[in-house]
Structure formats: structure tokens, C-alpha cells
Amino acid sequence: MNELIINLHMHTTYSDGSGTHGDIVQAALKAGLDAVITTDHNVYVNGPEGYYQEGNSKVLLMVGEEVHDQTANPQKNHLLVIGATREMAALAEDPQRLIDSVLKSGGLAFIAHPVDPAAPVFGEPDISWERWEVGNFTGIELWNAMSEFKGLLKNWFRAIFFAFNPKMVAHAPYREAVQKWDELLASGKRVVAVGGSDAHAFRVSIGPLKRILFPYEFHFQAVNTHLIIREPLSGDVSKDRAAIIDALANGRCFIGYDLPAPTRGFRFTAQGKEASVEMGAEITIDTGVTLQIHLPQRSECRLLKDGKVIKTWTKREICSYIATEPGVYRVEVYLKYFGVRRGWIFSNPIYVRE
Hints:
By secondary structure, this protein is an alpha+beta fold. It has 2 domains: 2-257, TIM Barrel (Alpha-Beta Barrel), CATH 3.20.20.140; 267-353, Sandwich (Immunoglobulin-like), CATH 2.60.40. The protein is built from 7 helices and 20 strands. The chain has a 7-stranded mixed β-barrel with strand order 1-2-4-5-6-7-8, surrounded by 4 helices. It has a two-stranded antiparallel ribbon with strand order 9-10. The longest helix has 13 residues, at 237-249. The two termini are 27 Å apart.
């Protein structure tokens, strides 16, 4: 198995971002990412997708889309479309039809920023997802970096503080988003969780002071999605693109907050009597299933079953647990950064079945 680090959900000058696809590529190369997926609002930008190289480093740029109904007020229910190679914005009015069309085209549909609170001081409305009656979506954007920043904007002082101290922003996905994810999993749905930066690289001017808030490179060092793929990237755009989409579709991935410490190397597997599986897969319980967790460094690790913590380890790098009951098992890892306990790793589930 091979691990890739990708960053998804970002905007360019084709919508409300300040940078070009070239700027994003340069930032991704500096951050050491394997791939990035742009998602401009209601526009599929045809053309820039492909590999870009500088020296010995290269990155795959993929193009997606963030679709929402622009006639709605407020404009809630944003959907990240990945892998559909055509424009989908015309279907925004009907989320279920949109999701179905994305899947039919071979793409993936992720509910964007399921919890996105209002910031009244700045006139920003709540744009959380509300249409939970829809089905068949691939997953949800469990951790959205900019939505978390937006939730901190209680007044101008806090806005200026966090804008100029971006390392202090991230703590964890919104608890309401995690609870909704657990609720969906408990209902029998297979729902893949990803982390998104929602990068815009905002350009601001205050008198003579000009600054880019949350530049792309900063985002690319923070909340990422790590994929487990079958074979190393080949350099062939079509083949590697398909491998990334396959890993995302099947939940062979975890969310890693890479700013405090690299999360590369995390693994969550299950060993049964006749099979061994990774995140996103199902395994049948017999006399028991051994869940194994490998951490990049000593930290606080929590194992959850059906949304409830059943085991906590501290200062451990390798953790194991024998599951004797069916359920949806997933992992959360925490560590301290700037003296505050922060979410570090959120795995996708392993489904232990009867």
C-alpha cells in the first residue's frame, strides 16, 4: 500500500479565490503534496488538469467543482463534485438530482462544510447543509478549515488575531459535524469523511498594509486528506486520477492535521480469521477481529464504536484491540499544539459485520 497526501476544496480566480491554478501548483510543490483538487464555485474549469513538475518534485492537479443554488437565499447546501468531467452547476436547484447525475457520470459527491455557522459581525450567513433527506452521496467534508475560522469571528478583535495567527485556528472538526457523521454511519450508510482546506488566499488591504490571509501554502501544510492506494503513482494522469478517485470513493483515507506534526504513516487495519482490511472496508466477525492502530508518534488515541469511545490510549505509538461485537469502528487522535489539545487524525471507519 502507498500513502498520498492531497488537499481538496480550494478556489481560484475563476470564482472567489485570489490565485491562479499556477499559483496553487507552486504552493502544492512547496508543501510537498502529491495532488490537489480545485473546486471553483459553479464552474468546471476545463484545461489545467495534469501533472506539473519542478526539479525532482511533481504534483497532480485535478479539477472539480463546488456546486450550490445561487438563486437561494441564503445559499446553503454546497456539494463538492470530484471526478465528474463536465459542468454540473445547472443541476444545483435539486440536490438529489445533482448527486445522482454526479455519480452517473463517474464522479464523487461530498457534502461541503456540513456545519458552517454565521458570522453576523461580518454579514456572513450560516451556509450549513440542510438537505439531509438526500441519499447516495459519497461522503462529507468532516473538517473544513475555513468554516472553523469563520466560527471564531465573534468580533473584530478575534478576527484580526486569528487572521494574523492562523496556526492558532484549527482545533478539530465541529462536534455537530462529527455527530451527524456518526448518525449517518449508525443508520447503515457508508459515508466517507474527508478534510478540506476551502482555500481562497484572501487578499486584504488595511491602509498601506497589504497581506494574503491564509495563503495556499499554509493551507496545504494543515488540514489534508491522506489516501491509501494500491500502487505508487505512475505519472500517467488518467491512471493516477482513477486511483485517487477509487481511494476516495472507498474511504481508504484519513484526515490529517499536518501542521503540528506530520500525520504520514498512520494506519488503521483489521485482522480477521481469513482477511486483513484497511479503512473503508468491511470484515466479518467470527471469533474476533483484531483492530490495529499505528501512530506516527506518541499521542492520545481514541477508538470509537458506533460513535462512542470504547478505548483510550495515551503516549502510545502502536495500539490494538480485539473487537468481539459488530459495529462501525473508527479512530480519533489528539495532541497538544501551542498548549492546546487539538484534533490530529480522524480515520475513516472499518465496518465489522455479522
